[in-house]
C-alpha cells in the first residue's frame, strides 16, 4: 500500500517486506506469533540500517528499540509459561539478509511459537512465502540489537552543559579586533563618528556570517530616534570579565549589546584539547 | 475584520487566496518547506525550507479600490539563514534545513525572528532602509579610501532617499549547545529569554548572551542503553514566564516551573492518558509519540498531536485529555505498511486559531483537517492546484473507508502518502491560514461577504 507518487527503487527485499506488511494489515487470519515475528524482523532490519548510518535518528531508534523490547518481553513471558514446542509444519529456511550476518544474529527457533500450532500448519500453504522470509531471532539477539544502536547514539560530546562552550570552527576568535576597541577616548570618538555612518554603505547582506568584524558592531542605521537596536533589558545576567572592554561602546545605543554577542570567547578547555590530540594522534 | 470570527464552522467557508512556489513536477529537495509561522500581528508570514532559506511575506495594505483582494501576502525578504556545515570531530554533516522559526514581538521599526536548524539558533533582524548617506569624507563615491592628507575640508554626509530595501542581518548566533538535534524553540513571555530543545535536553538562553546557555532539562541517562524516551517538542507558557511544557515520545507531557529548581528534571505536572486496551498493537507506542505541543492563546489548554489524533488537555487535569479528535483513524488498519515505509514517523504539527475555538492539523494526500471545539464539527480540505482558482471556495473532502465509494470520495488505498501537510499556520486574529504542501505554500481565507 505504497502511495502513488512515492518514487522508490524497491529492491527485492523491500518489495518482499511491502508485500508482507500489506498482508499484515489486510489479513485477519495471520496468526499472532507470525505477525509479531514480522514486526520484530522489520524492527531489527531498520535498526540494522540505522547502524550503518553515520548519524542514526535518535527518536526513531528509541521508538523501534522500545518496540523490540515490548516484543522481547512478551516472548519471555510466553517462554516462561509454555514448554518449548516447535510446530512441525513450519519449515524454517536459513534465510538471512546481508547486514544481518555482520551483526552476528544467529538463527534459532523461538520458544512459544507453539500456541498457534494448528493454525500455522493449516495456513502453511498460504503463508509459506511469509514464513520462509522471516528471520528467527533469539532473546539475546534482540537485546544486543537494542544496546548496539543505543550505544551508537551516545555521541562523544564536545560540549558539557550548561556553561562550557567552545566556538565553532568558522567563528574565529575576535581578539585582534577586540583589542582595537581599547582605544583612547579621542580616537574612539573619531572612529565612532565615522562608524555611525559606516553602516550606510550598501553592504552585501547575503554574507551573513563571515568575519563579524568591528564594522558589524556599528552596522545599525542610526536613523533618528525611533530606530534603536534590539532593546537590552535593564536586568542583565553576569557576563564573563573579558566583556568589560565593551563599556566604552555604551555611548552608542545601537552598539552595546551586539558587540558582546558577535565576539566568540575562545576558551581553552584542557580536557577538550586532550581529546582532540587523541584523535589526531590516532590513539 | 473579526466578523464571524470564531463562530460556527458552518459559517466559515474557506477560499483559495494565493499559492507560492513552482508547479514543476519534480520537486527540488531544497525547496521543501519545513516550517511556517505568522508573526504576532499577522502582518508577516515566514517560511523556512530544507535549503536553509527563509522567505518572509508581508501582507499588503487593503485597498478600497480592490476590496476583494483582502490583503495579499507578497515577498518581503528572502535570505539564507543556515548553510550546511561539517562537524569534523564527528565526521557528520549538519543539515541546513530550517526546523523552526519563531517571531519576537515587535518593539521598534525592525522585525526579529529566531530560526534554527539541527544545531544552531540564529536571531535575525529584518529592517527597512529607504535612505542612504552621501558625501563621505574618508571615502569617495565608489567606496575607495581617500588619502587623508589630501582632504582639505570636512562635510557632513546627508541622507538621501533611495528605493526601499529590506535587509536581513544575523544579530546573534547561538551555537555549540546541542549535542542532539534541535526540534523546538520557544520565545519566553518576558521577551528576554528563549529555550531550545533537542532530543534529550532543553537549554535556556538570554537573547543577549550567545556563549552561554542554561540547561534546564536533561533526560539523558547515564547509560544510553537505558534510554527509552526522548523529548519531541517544547513550548513556553504564553503568559507565565516561569512555566513551560515538553512532550515525549511516549505520549506524555510534562509541565515544569523554573522557579522550583535550576534543573527542571522534576515536573510540576505530568499529563498522560491511560492506554486503551482495545486499541493495543505493536505500534501503539510509536503512534503515541507526540509530534507537536502548543499552548492555547489563553494559556489554559495545551494541544498535542500524535500520529492519529489531536488532543486538547486542560492544565488542571493531568490524567486524561478533555478532547480527542481523530485526524485519520482509517490509517489504524494500515499501520504495518506505514511503519514499513516510515510514514508512521511523520511529524505533523497542529495550530490553534486566534480565539482557541478551532484547531487545525495536516494529513496525507495534501489534506488538512479543522475541528471546531464548540460545535464538534470537523472538515477535511485539500491544498491542490486544481482548487486554486481565485477566491474559489474549497470543497470539503471525504475519505471512504470501505463499502461503496461515493463519487467525490477517495479511498484509503488511493491516498498519496508522499503529499503530506506537516506544517500549517493560522493568522493570530483573522481567518487566514497558511498551509505548506511540500514545496508550495497555500494561503486560504474565509469568504468575504
Protein architecture, described:
The complex is a heterodimer of chains A (283) and B (449). Chain A is an all-alpha fold and 283 residues long. Helix content of chain A is 47%, strand content 0%. Chain A contains 10 helices and no strands. The radius of gyration of chain A is 32 Å and the shape is elongated. The relative contact order of chain A is 0.10. Mean pLDDT of chain A is 57; it is low at 2-10, 86-127, 160-212 and 221-268. In chain B, the strands form 9 sheets. Chain B has a 4-stranded antiparallel beta sheet, with no helix packed on it. Chain B has a single domain, classed as Methylamine Dehydrogenase, Chain H, CATH 2.130.10. Chain B is mainly β. Chain B has helices spanning 284-288, 335-340, and strands spanning 14-20, 33-38, 44-49, 53-59, 73-80, 85-87, 92-94, 100-103, 111-116, 121-134, 158-174, 184-187, 193-197, 201-206, 214-218, 231-236, 243-248, 253-257, 269-271, 292-295, 301-305, 309-314, 323-326, 350-352, 358-362, 367-372, 378-382, 399-400, 410-411, 423-426, 432-437, 440-446. The radius of gyration of chain B is 24 Å and the shape is globular. The longest helix of chain B is centred in the C-terminal third of the chain and has 6 residues, at 335-340. In chain B, strand 12 (184-187) and strand 13 (193-197) form a beta hairpin. Chains A and B meet through helix 1, helix 2, helix 3, helix 5 and helix 9 of A and strand 10, strand 11, strand 14, strand 15 and helix 2 of B. Chain A: Pfam families: SERTA. Chain A: One of its GO terms (cellular component) is nucleus. Chain A: This is SRTD2 protein. Chain A: Residues 32-79 form the SERTA domain.
Amino acid at each position: 500500500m505504497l502511495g502513488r507518487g512515492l518514487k522508490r527503487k524497491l529492491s527485492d527485499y523491500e518489495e518482499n517486506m511491502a508485500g508482507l506488511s500489506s498482508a499484515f494489515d489486510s489479513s485477519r487470519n495471520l496468526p499472532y506469533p507470525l505477525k509479531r515475528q514480522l514486526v520484530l524482523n522489520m524492527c531489527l532490519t531498520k535498526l540494522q540500517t540505522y547502524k550503518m548510518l553515520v548519524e542514526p535518528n535518535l527518536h526513531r531508534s528509541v521508538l523501534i528499540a522500545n518496540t523490540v523490547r515490548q516484543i522481547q518481553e512478551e516472548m519471555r513471558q510466553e517462554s516462561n509459561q509454555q514448554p518449548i514446542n516447535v510446530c512441525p509444519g513450519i519449515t524454517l529456511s536459513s534465510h538471512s539478509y546481508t547486514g544481518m550476518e555482520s551483526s552476528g544474529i544467529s538463527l534459532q527457533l523461538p520458544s512459544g511459537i507453539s500456541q498457534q500450532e494448528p493454525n500455522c500448519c493449516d495456513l502453511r500453504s498460504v503463508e509459506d512465502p511469509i514464513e520462509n522470509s522471516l528471520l528467527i531471532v533469539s532473546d539475546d539477539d534482540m537485546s544486543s540489537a537494542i544496546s548496539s544502536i543505543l550505544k551508537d547514539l551516545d555521541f562523544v560530546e564536545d560540549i558539557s552543559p550548561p556553561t562550557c562552550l567552545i566556538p565553532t570552527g568558522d567563528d574565529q576568535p575576535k581578539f585582534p579586533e577586540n583589542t582595537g576597541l581599547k582605544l583612547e577616548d579621542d580616537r574612539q570618538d573619531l572612529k565612532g563618528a565615522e562608524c555611525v555612518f559606516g553602516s550606510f554603505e550598501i553592504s552585501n547582506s547575503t554574507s551573513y556570517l563571515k568575519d563579524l568584524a568591528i564594522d558589524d558592531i556599528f552596522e545599525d542605521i542610526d536613523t533618528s530616534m525611533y530606530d534603536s537596536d534590539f532593546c537590552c533589558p535593564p536586568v542583565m545576567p553576569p557576563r564573563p570579565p573579558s566583556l568589560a572592554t565593551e563599556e566604552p561602546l555604551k555611548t552608542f545605543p545601537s552598539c552595546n549589546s551586539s558587540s558582546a554577542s558577535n565576539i566568540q570567547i575562545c576558551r581553552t578547555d584542557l580536557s577538550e584539547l586532550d581529546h582532540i590530540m587523541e584523535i589526531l594522534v590516532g590513539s | 475584520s473579526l466578523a464571524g470570527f470564531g463562530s460556527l464552522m458552518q459559517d466559515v467557508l474557506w477560499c483559495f487566496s494565493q499559492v507560492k512556489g513552482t508547479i514543476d513536477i519534480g520537486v527540488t529537495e531544497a525547496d521543501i518547506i519545513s516550517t511556517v509561522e505568522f508573526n504576532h500581528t499577522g502582518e508577516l508570514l515566514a517560511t523556512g525550507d530544507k535549503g536553509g532559506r527563509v522567505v518572509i511575506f508581508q501582507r499588503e495594505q487593503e485597498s478600497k479600490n480592490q476590496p476583494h483582494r483582502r490583503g495579499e501576502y507578497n515577498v518581503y525578504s528572502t535570505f539564507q539563514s543556515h548553510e550546511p556545515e561539517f562537524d569534523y570531530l564527528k565526521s557528520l554533516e549538519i543539515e541546513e534545513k530550517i526546523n523552526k522559526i519563531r517571531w519576537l514581538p515587535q518593539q521598534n521599526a525592525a522585525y526579529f525572528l529566531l530560526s534554527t536548524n539541527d544545531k544552531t539558533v540564529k536571531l535575525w533582524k529584518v529592517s527597512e532602509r529607504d535612505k542612504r548617506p552621501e558625501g563621505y569624507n574618508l571615502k569617495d563615491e565608489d567606496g575607495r579610501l581617500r588619502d587623508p592628507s589630501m582632504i582639505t575640508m570636512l562635510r557632513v554626509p546627508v541622507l538621501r532617499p533611495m528605493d526601499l530595501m529590506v535587509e536581513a542581518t544575523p544579530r546573534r548566533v547561538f551555537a555549540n549547545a546541542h549535542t542532539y538535534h534541535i526540534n523546538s524553540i520557544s520565545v519566553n513571555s518576558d521577551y528576554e529569554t528563549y529555550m531550545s530543545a533537542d532530543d534529550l535536553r532543553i537549554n535556556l538562553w538570554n537573547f543577549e548572551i550567545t556563549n552561554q546557555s542554561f540547561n534546564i532539562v536533561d533526560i539523558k541517562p547515564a547509560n544510553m542503553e537505558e534510554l527509552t524516551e526522548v523529548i519531541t517538542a517544547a513550548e513556553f507558557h504564553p503568559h507565565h514566564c516561569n512555566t513551560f511544557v515538553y512532550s515525549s515520545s511516549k505520549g506524555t507531557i510534562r509541565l515544569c516551573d523554573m522557579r522550583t529548581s535550576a534543573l527542571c528534571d522534576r515536573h510540576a505536572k505530568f499529563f498522560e492518558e491511560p492506554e486503551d486496551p482495545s486499541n493495543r498493537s505493536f505500534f501503539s507506542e510509536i503512534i503515541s509519540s507526540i509530534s507537536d505541543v502548543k499552548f492555547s492563546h489563553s494559556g489554559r489548554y495545551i494541544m498535542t498531536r500524535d500520529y492519529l489524533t489531536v488532543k486538547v488537555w486542560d492544565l488542571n487535569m493531568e490524567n486524561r485529555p478533555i478532547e480527542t479528535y481523530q485526524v485519520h483513524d482509517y490509517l489504524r488498519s494500515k499501520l504495518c505498511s506505514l511503519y514499513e515505509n516510515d510514514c508512521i514517523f511523520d511529524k505533523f504539527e497542529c495550530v490553534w486559531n486566534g480565539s482557541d475555538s478551532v484547531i487545525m492539523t495536516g494529513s496525507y494526500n495534501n489534506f488538512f483537517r479543522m475541528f471546531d471545539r464548540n460545535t464538534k464539527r470537523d472538515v477535511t480540505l485539500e491544498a491542490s492546484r486544481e482548487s486554486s482558482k481565485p477566491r474559489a471556495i474549497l470543497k470539503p473532502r471525504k475519505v471512504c473507508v470501505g463499502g461503496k465509494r461515493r463519487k467525490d470520495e477517495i479511498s484509503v488505498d488511493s491516498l498519496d502518502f508522499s503529499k503530506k501537510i506537516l506544517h500549517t499556520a493560522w493568522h493570530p486574529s483573522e481567518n487566514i491560514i497558511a498551509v505548506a504542501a511540500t514545496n508550495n505554500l497555500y494561503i486560504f481565507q474565509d469568504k468575504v461577504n
